[in-house]
Amino acid sequence: MGEVLIVVPARLGSIRLKNKPLREIKGKPLIRWVVENLSKTGFDILVATDSGKVKEVVRDLAEVVLTPSELPSGSDRVAYAVERLGIEAPYIVNYQGDEPFAYKEDLNRLIAALKGGASVATLATPLEGGLFEDPNAVKVVTDRRGYALYFSRAPIPFPRSGFKFKPLKHIGIYAFRRETLFEFTRLKPTPLEETEKLEQLRLLENGIPIKVEITENFYHGVDTENDIPVVEERL
Fold first, then answer.
1. Given 5, 96, 186, 197, which residue has the most CB atoms within 10 angstroms?
2. E strands along the chain, which residues?
């Protein structure tokens, strides 16, 4: 195994979209789209799931670890799988199991950010269309060095006198230094995290900076029924 491992957490019990990893997208389960497209990047891949059904769908594509259903977040599922297998890769990517689009150049940029000194790195893209008001589209604002100031489901920044900052949509892909991943999952959930239901706020509330890399590539996670036709059009 190389210095980079991509772990795909996939929990079957999604609230907003039932059995989400197994939902058919153009005749193929969503989780299979995710793993197939990640396989094209050339990185090592591990799937961390609480479902034997998900395991059967992707076992020919990647190694699969079964994890407890009660783990509270995708990052906890990632950390559990890495620890259980004794994986020593210094860079771990948490690649959401509902994000079917994958680009090697973006993964390389995240890893480069870690090698350049960041503890955690993630992606964002210019926010287009009517998503600024959509709570399912998570927004992020950054400082001048490209580090996250805040993530929110609310419209940020508020354009009181017009936009002086291009709104950014956060893409839920996280690259961690191995030690930071375990530090993160040992921390208790924080007030802002529990308010917004965004686990990355736990990092910011504990003073762990997140480097945000901007990409122009197309990403669209599958959270609701409305996302399916959007994704199908682009796959």
1. 5
2. 4-10, 24-25, 28-29, 44-49, 63-66, 91-95, 120-126, 139-142, 148-152, 168-177, 210-214
In this structure, are residues 88 and 70 in contact, taking their beta carbons and an 8 Å threshold? no
* Nearest-angstrom CA–CA distance, 123 and 49: 23
Distance, CA of 108 to CA of 4 (rounded, Å): 10
**Which residues have a Cβ under 8 Å from the Cβ of 126 and sit 6 or more positions away?**
166, 167, 168, 169, 214, 216
**φ and ψ at residue 15, rounded to 5 degrees:** -80, -45
pLDDT in tens, 102-158: 999 999 999 999 999 999 999 999 998 778 888 889 999 999 999 999 999 999 998
Which CATH number do you get for residue 36?
Answer: 3.90.550.10
223 class by beta-carbon count within 10 Å (0-12 exposed, 13-18 middle, 19+ buried): middle
Full-model pTM: 0.93
Residues 146, 191 contacting (CB under 8 angstroms): no
Q: What's at 62, amino acid-wise?
A: A
SS3 content of the chain, % helix, strand, coil (to 5): 30, 25, 40
* Beta-strand relationship, 210-214 and 28-29: unpaired
In this structure, is the dihedral angle defined by the CA atoms of residues 10, 44, 182 and 170, taken in order, positive or negative?
A: negative
Pairing of strands 44-49, 4-10: parallel
Structural domains counted in the chain: 1
Whether the CB-CB separation of 78 and 9 falls below 8 Å is answered with yes
